[in-house]
Task: structure prediction
Amino acid sequence: MTDHTVKSYDDDLSQLKTMLAQMGGLVEQQLDDAIDALTRRDTALADRVIQIDERVDVLEHQIEEKAILTIARRQPVARDLREIMVAIRVSSDLERIGDLAKNTAKRTHALSDQLPRKLMAGVTRMGRLAQVELKNILDAYSHSDAGMAMEVWRSDEELDALYNSIFRELLTYMMEDPRNISLCTHLLFGAKNMERIGDHATNIAENIHYLVHGKPLGEGRPKKDVTAAMRIDLEGSEDR
Result:
């Protein structure tokens, strides 16, 4: 390629990374505000989280269009092509995380001031763990750091274990008093959203490994969610 072509291609990649950084920042803010809104039962803050989601969706479409146009114009191969494809995948995971934060915020409208503090504390802790995973995986992506990405990938076990504990606790509350069912169901959806955010962070970790090493991760994904056999089906129900 000529020097001009190389510079143009570098500019395209730089724009993609800038857009992804902007999208990541918005999603981090969404998640932080969603957790605060749920914890404080702040419906006004929850509504702002919901509104931000439109900007996240627009950025995902812009990143996808930019990536496709770059492939068509530059016809990249090897590492360069992986970088563009991973950018598309990361933007898709970030958009899903934004959806999960939005739907967590929506739960705020259904919670009352009589919410047991102990129950809310567990969900809040899950949210903070999910925040740490998201921050660390975005840092790993910005630095193309596969080692840091694998640390996030392995740390997801802690989030799964906490979800299992909260699930059992909420189930106990529902069995003890049917009047708790509605409240506990909303909290269960909130906790499941946080667990799903961790799954999307591990998706990004696997894509970073692929970007750096040029091959899929060989290890099986760590998964400690043992509630599948007895829980109501929450998988995917909060993604949109």
